[in-house]
Amino acid sequence: MYHSHNTKKYFLFMSAAVLILTAAVSCGDADTPKKPTGQTESAVTESPVTEDPLRAQYADIAPIPEDTNGYEFRITVDQGSVLVNGQVQWDSDEANGDTINDAIYQRNLAVEEQYNCTISLLTAEEDDLVAKKAIMAGDDFTDIMIIDSMSQTTDLCAIGLFSNLADMPELHMDAPWWDQPIRELAIHGKQFVTTGAITIKDDLSQMCVMFNKELATKYDYDDFYQHVLDGTWTWELMKSRTKNIYSDLNGDGVMGPYDLYGMITFDDGPYFMAVGADMNTIIYDDATESYLSNWNSEDVMTKLTDYVDFAIDTPGVIIRGSNRVNNMFGEDGTLVDRTFRENRALFWVGNFGATVNMRDMESDFGLLPIPKWNEEQKQYCCTVTGGSGPVTIPTTVSDPHITALITDAMAYESMFTLTPAFYDVFLDEKILRDEDSLATVDLMFASKKYDFDWQLDITEIDRSVSDMVAVHSNNLVKIIASSSKRAQKVIDKYIAKYED
Q: Taking a C-beta distance cutoff of 8 angstroms, is the pair 84, 200 a contact?
């Protein structure tokens, strides 16, 4: 590991800085599909005593320890989400020398001592179904429920099974230990899901661009990091370098497993990259206080058409899992992966968690945020995709005050334990091999975007777009024209559930 003791201290400070930046930064502007939560901060009459300079800056808003008389704080999580990329996520019985495990252990121990409680982990085979059955039966079965993906919470939130977190003053939702961009998913001030320092799943689910550093050097593309920091890392730049690098290495005149490619993506890649271009398919209209379909707008049509056309028409692009690529490379994806590992693909567009699979890659690679649409775009927007593991609180908890208090404390303590451990393990030289990548990852984490339509699974038109890309076809105009009226009806019906 290249981190010295001083470097680790730097990471700790950088981690906090990223969380602070995240609180201040949000993709988009007035057109972003969000409604202010209207939450008021809880009154704080005293602050916990601390000599830690890093903690001291949060002394006036930090959770205040309270004796809960041995309360059992229960965390229920899907069985498949107990481990994330092989790492323990929520509870640990003892310290064992593993960085993430020990951070979880230290976090939970600190909370247990400060609140005189015990933290226990429960598992469920089908988390959303278990939650629905238990809550509708009035069962106080858990304090927080970690649903695997945001879309699974949609129907459960709409029928009132989870608490409105904005109404729980013990939760400092505007504090840096909670993700601020996720508040864009609040509907008319009601926020039923959250995430932040308490978990690393949202970070691993965030979209990014890996680039092969050996190819970048070979083709004199060593300026990616500078473009990112200068705000000039744009879609046009990425397109030009993707096209320029493609080569039919074996000279057979067709794309094949052993040619040189510019980009690897997936069938939903064009949609997520368009979201990264600050595309919003649903917008909130302040004048009418309503949510409107934006699918047939010029902005959505222009951006989606450009991304889709480029993906399906450019010889230098591999759409992993598409019919054409499966026929050429095989369905298991092994040969596609090898193009990047063996220095025959410049870019890989995917989520951050995929970098863990590159630990043993011999050549170096770097990380970049999803490019801006153009230089006029205010900032980068890196979409958080499925499997982000949002935190919810069932309406059946017997003591909402204690539940919210301990939940907030866990997120707060995670900022000083889990976050720096995450930097140590996932951002060491086995994955990111230079300090420049670290800087761009900091920026990436501060540029999260939770796409309102996709995350809440509202119109589902995005699926039609992905299906279209998978067969290398572009019927976007027809799809949007036939779906736009239905989309507004679906939106109205969805929002009405929250107004009831």
A: yes
Entry pTM: 0.86
Cα separation of 371 and 380, whole Å? 7
Counts of helices then strands in the chain (DSSP H, E):
19, 15
For residue 291, the surrounding DSSP H or E stretch is strand 290-293
Q: How far is CA 336 from CA 138, 349, 431, in A?
A: 49, 13, 20
If we measure between CA atoms, which residue out of 129, 126, 114, 131 comes closest to residue 74?
131
Distance between CA atoms of residues 145 and 120, nearest Å: 12
Write the CA distances from 186 to 10, 92, 162, 164, integer angstroms. Answer: 34, 32, 13, 9
Report whether pLDDT(79) > 80. Answer: no
Query: pLDDT tens, 12-70?
Result: 444 444 444 444 445 755 443 333 333 433 333 344 444 678 788 898 899 999 999 99
For residue 10, what pLDDT band results from cuts at 50, 70 and 90? very low
What is the rounded (10 degree) CA torsion for 232, 296, 32, 449? -60
Assess contact for 202 and 179: CB atoms under 8 A.
yes
Q: Where are the beta strands (DSSP E) in 216-271?
A: 261-266
Cα separation, 278 vs 303, whole angstroms:
9
CB-based contact 422:168 (threshold 8 Å): no
Distance CA 78, CA 424 (A): 26
DSSP 378-442: -S--EEB-S----EE-BTT-S-HHHHHHHHHHHHHHHTTTHHHHHHHHHTSTTT--SHHHHHHHH
Query: What whole-number distance in Å separates Cα of residue 161 and Cα of residue 136?
Result: 7
Q: What are phi and psi of 483, to 5 degrees?
A: -110, -15
pLDDT tens figures, 208-266 = 999 999 999 999 998 999 999 999 999 999 999 999 899 988 888 878 888 999 999 99
